[in-house]
Write a structure and sequence with these properties.
The complex is a heterodimer of chains A (455) and B (261). With 455 residues, chain A is of the alpha+beta class. Helix content of chain A is 56%, strand content 18%. Chain A has 14 helices and 12 strands. In chain A, helix 2 packs across helix 10, helix 2 crosses helix 12 and helix 8 packs antiparallel against helix 10. Chain A is elongated. Chain B has 7 helices and 13 strands. In chain B, the strands form 3 sheets. In chain B, strands 6-7-8-3-9-10 form a 6-stranded mixed β-sheet. Chain B is globular and about 50 Å long. The chains are: A alpha+beta (455), B alpha/beta (261).
């Protein structure tokens, strides 16, 4: 029958009251536990986002600078290759193809050094996606076949094939019936170097795996142009032409000739790409700045919420224990009359406060684990650089695109680590002690004679 | 057994109530010998409880000395008083004052816990004491399962837990009915006779007071010298104050001279 047992018994004497207090405290504790985790998660998400953006921009700059003499020709608008959108590749239904004959027409234009044809064909399924209460039909890409001419004079000089081979080898002149896969596709095909991959019913040997640095190339696989045309049934078709000029001065002349020959072509040059890059940079910076300001708002709200819940917890304990001390004045008198010292009485009441607070801490951990994402989404402004629509779009359409909310719940949920548990334990003990300090002191100072007279 | 255990010298207690001074005790000189069973009688407001509180270190006198076991209590610092209450004094209250959430045996153990005695020893002694007060089979009961008389017996056992030099009983029978009253005061008498426990009992009930070996009277804060001899308790029997006949402890009248006990 030590002080601890007595404290436990005293807490359980008023079961309903103790329960109510513990539950109320538990929520405070849960908030204290989950809010900092959310802030950290948001911060990490933002950091990841900013790193990714920087990587994308650098990559784009490098690419653009390497290709001063490049004139890109395609049948659909946009800047597919160099201007990735954070929303991901939206659709393949708009894919259009041109005849191979364009290669020869354009090659014969004066000042053209080389023409590199590509055939890009996305393979996937059409799915209905619900977004904001409306049903959208969307094409979800499984993979994109990229057919390139395996001509060593082209693949050695220009950016035709991916460069970042991490296993096996790259494609080379004369290859047929072989592919290289983006690392992200090895799982989809269940194949790596040396294995066979079933592509639209035909088996190809995987000779290499590369790691894509282009966020839009994550699902690409490369094969020879003729293989690509054969397997997709697009014999004699191509989707894009990279036209290389002899020098920069001849670019304008070439562009005007191409557009007069093929008015339906979308043609982009170095200068256009450069100005597009600037616009992209600006967009990204705005996004990051938005996210940054939301995060700082989040931080200050989180700080306020935590200060509030700490004060609420301490106050709840303070008032509960004060009430307790008042209610048990007589008991304190008895304890003093039979020879308990002030310090023993004080430690007993403090211990009771700590027991309450520890039980609340345990509840807080449980509530925190289960409800952290809800609690934080309820209490904190959400970080979303894309706007709410953009976020869900990116999440449904391109799972590889960063989704801060997914990161958040991953980080915050799951079993808490030892550190969090110890921290919560410490916080519980501290707040219990803090809240019961004054009541316990009052209890210990009660005059035994007065206390015994108390009814 | 004639050693003086408790002595007061010119004890005064003055309360200030709303700027007016109220003299609760004045010039109280009391000598208690080891093994005494004293009852202090007086009407309510006569200062009985004040005196008892001062003797038990729950209160301090305004003037005068209290010497318990050769220690002047008025010189003991406030912070150390709990040791006196713990080791030298046992309290019995009118309202029993048991901890409602503790079993009888745990209530008896409580003062020993305060004294830091080991658990096994505590339990053994508590059971022993419960046996002495006649409750060996009630140790596991909480106070609300015990009758008033049984609760007071538990309180008596608790008062004896740390072998105090003196037991102070404040109206110990005030909340009990007639038959139980006598049982309790005779239990005190028996403890006094058998164990040599020094007891000071305060009461306004003359029948109860007369059970003590020595009766004192308190009126308006003054102790009257008129001492009256009460019943003297011996082992398992008592002595008639009228004719000196030895009687069984449960006797209500002296069968020799007919005196009401």
């Amino acid at each position: 029958m030590g002080v601890i047992t007595r404290a436990l018994r005293n807490v359980s004497r008023r079961k309903i009251r103790a329960l109510l207090v513990i539950v109320a405290l538990g929520f405070s504790m849960a908030i204290m536990m989950s809010i900092p985790a959310s802030v950290v998660a948001n911060q990490l998400a933002l950091q990841g986002l900013s790193e990714d953006y920087n990587e994308i921009i650098t990559e784009m700059e490098e690419q653009i600078n390497k290709t001063m003499t490049l004139i890109e020709c395609r049948l659909t608008g946009g800047f597919r290759r160099f201007m990735p959108s954070p929303f991901g590749q939206t659709s393949a239904t708009s894919e259009q193809f041109m005849n191979e004959s364009a290669i020869y027409d354009i090659s014969s234009i004066e000042g053209v050094k080389d023409v590199v044809p590509f055939l890009e064909k996305s393979v996937g399924t059409t799915q209905n996606v619900e977004m904001r209460g409306r049903i959208f039909t969307m094409f979800v890409t499984d993979y994109t076949i990229v057919g390139v001419p395996l001509d060593s004079s082209l693949i050695d000089e220009y950016t035709v094939l991916p460069t970042n081979i991490i296993a096996g080898r790259n494609l080379q002149e004369g290859d047929s019936g072989v592919v290289i896969l983006s690392l992200n596709l090895t799982e989809f095909f269940g194949a790596s170097v040396g294995d066979q991959a079933n592509i639209l019913g035909r088996y190809f040997t995987v000779v290499g795996v590369y790691k894509s640095t282009d966020p839009l190339g994550l699902k690409n696989l490369y094969m020879s142009l003729s293989d690509a045309q054969a397997v997709t049934g697009l014999e004699g078709k191509i989707s894009r032409l990279d036209v290389y000029a002899e020098d920069q001065s001849s670019i304008n002349g070439i562009v005007s000739q191409i557009t007069s020959l093929y008015p339906e072509f979308y043609v982009t040059t170095y200068e256009q790409r450069l100005s597009q890059l600037e616009r992209t940079k600006e967009t990204y910076q705005n996004m990051l700045a938005n996210a940054e300001s939301t995060l700082s708002q989040t931080r200050s709200v989180a700080f306020q919420v935590i200060v509030l819940s700490i004060s609420a917890t301490s106050l709840i304990i303070l008032f509960t224990m004060l009430y307790n001390v008042r209610e048990r004045t007589r008991e304190i008198g008895i304890l003093k009359a039979i020879g308990f010292s002030n310090s023993t009485i004080m430690s007993q009441f403090m211990l009771e406060g700590i027991v309450l607070s520890l039980m609340a801490g345990a509840i807080g951990v449980v509530v925190g684990i289960v409800g952290a994402p809800y609690l934080s989404s309820l209490l904190l402004p959400s970080i979303n650089p894309f706007g709410s629509a953009g976020l869900s779009r990116s999440a449904t359409l391109n799972p590889t695109t960063l989704t801060p909310t997914a990161n958040l719940s991953q980080l915050v949920t799951g079993a808490p680590d030892l550190q969090t548990l110890l921290l919560m334990f410490g916080v519980s003990v501290l707040l219990g002690a803090l809240g019961s300090l004054y009541p316990a002191w009052r209890a210990s100072r009660t005059s035994p004679m007065e206390a015994l007279r108390h009814e | 057994m004639s050693e003086t255990i408790l002595e007061t010298e010119k004890l005064e207690k003055i309360y200030k109530i709303g700027g007016r001074e109220v003299r609760a005790l004045s010039d109280v000189n009391l000598q208690v010998k080891r093994g005494d069973f004293i009852s202090i009688m007086g009407p309510s407001g006569s200062g009985k409880t004040t005196l008892l509180n001062i003797l038990g270190c729950l209160d301090r006198p305004t003037y005068g000395k209290v010497i318990l076991d050769n220690v002047d209590l008025t010189k003991v610092p406030e912070k150390e008083l709990y040791k006196i209450r713990r080791d030298k004094v046992g309290f019995i209250f009118q309202t029993f004052n048991l901890m409602p959430y503790l079993k009888a045996v745990e209530n008896v153990e409580l003062p020993m816990e305060a004294a830091g005695r080991p658990k096994d020893e505590r339990r053994k002694r508590a059971l022993e004491l419960l046996k002495i007060v006649g409750l060996s089979d009630r140790g596991e009961h909480r106070p609300n399962r015990l009758s008033a008389g049984e609760q007071q017996r538990v309180a008596i056992a608790r008062a004896l837990a740390n072998d105090p030099d003196i037991v102070l009983a404040d109206e110990p029978t005030g909340n009990l009915d007639g038959k139980t009253k006598l049982e309790i005061v005779r239990l005190l008498g028996r403890l006094n006779g058998e164990q040599g426990t020094t007891i000071i009992m305060v009461t306004h009930d003359s029948q109860i007071a007369s059970q003590a070996a020595r009766m004192l009277f308190l009126a308006d804060g003054k102790l009257l010298e008129k001492e009256k001899k009460g019943i003297h308790f011996m082992r398992e029997e008592l002595m008639c104050p009228g004719c000196g006949a030895k009687l069984p402890t449960e006797a209500k009248y002296c069968f020799k001279c007919g005196v009401k006990l």
